[in-house]
Amino acid sequence: MSSYHQMCRWNSGKFYHHPALKDLRWYWRVEPGVHFFCDVDYDVFRYMEDNDKLYGFVINIYDSPQSIETLWPQTREFLAEHQEYIHPNNALGWLTDSKNRPEHNMKANGYSTCHFWSNFEVGDMNFWRSKPYEDYFEHLDKVGGFFYERWGDAPVHSLGLGLFADKEKIHWYLSSLFPLPPTLLMTPLIRHRFRDIGYQHIPYFNCPNSPKCKKRCKPGMFTDARGLDEEDCRANWFEMAHMN
């Protein structure tokens, strides 16, 4: 539907310039029909600012490579002219991983298709308003992939963050039952992350093991649908973005 393509373009590069948001820095995206299972009894914006974070997510999945076949080639074309925009502590390994789902990387012409599922995101709009991201969005907009393909705001946001942001400033509101290597659990990066935002956008979950959460969210659950467990890309994020 044309409205869906318009929405993806709007969320990728326009919403943070809306007059109602011009004096605001932080936002929390809340979609219709989603479920929150835990009491959030702290200020998530204060946490992000106090801990020098710029983007927070709960779910990290693979995209459909057929919908974004030229997104990575166009991104590489942009980077060829703007190498100076790439952050030295980037997450390029996560964006280009071909080990875990090689067929996705192949069909998407070098992009792993891993992305932060943006129906939940807590973010710093100053990052989207920065020159690297603004120039990147303008490049993508001119080549028309929001309409000729189906470039979603989730992969566009993820590519922008993975390339132009310090990966240490990207925060996961994690489920404490998600299996992480012991060496990673001991790092300050993990010890200071919240474990208490339970969330569902059908068909995926982020279910923490926390007394603040309702029983309707089984700790560690990723999906209640069959055959979708392989869509979970969180392990890639920790392996590629934080352990290299």
Keywords:
244 residues, single chain, globular, four-stranded mixed beta sheet, alpha+beta
Can you describe this structure?
The structure is a single chain. This protein has 244 residues and is of the alpha+beta class. The chain is 37% helix and 12% strand. The protein has 12 helices and 9 strands. The chain has a 4-stranded mixed sheet with strand order 1-6-3-7. The radius of gyration is 17 Å and the shape is globular.
Sequence stretches where pLDDT stays below 50 over 5 or more residues: 175-193
Number of strands: 9
**What structural class results from the helix and strand content?**
alpha+beta
Compute the gyration radius: what is it? 17 Å
Q: Tell me, rounded to a whole number, the average pLDDT.
A: 89
Series of H and E elements: HEEHEEHHHEEHHHHEHHEEH
Shape field: globular
How much strand content do the residues show?
5-15%
The number of helices is 12
Fraction of residues in helix = 25-40%
Distance, first to last CA: 40 Å
| Sheet with most strands | 4 strands, mixed
Q: Please list the strands of the largest sheet in the order they lie side by side.
A: 1-6-3-7
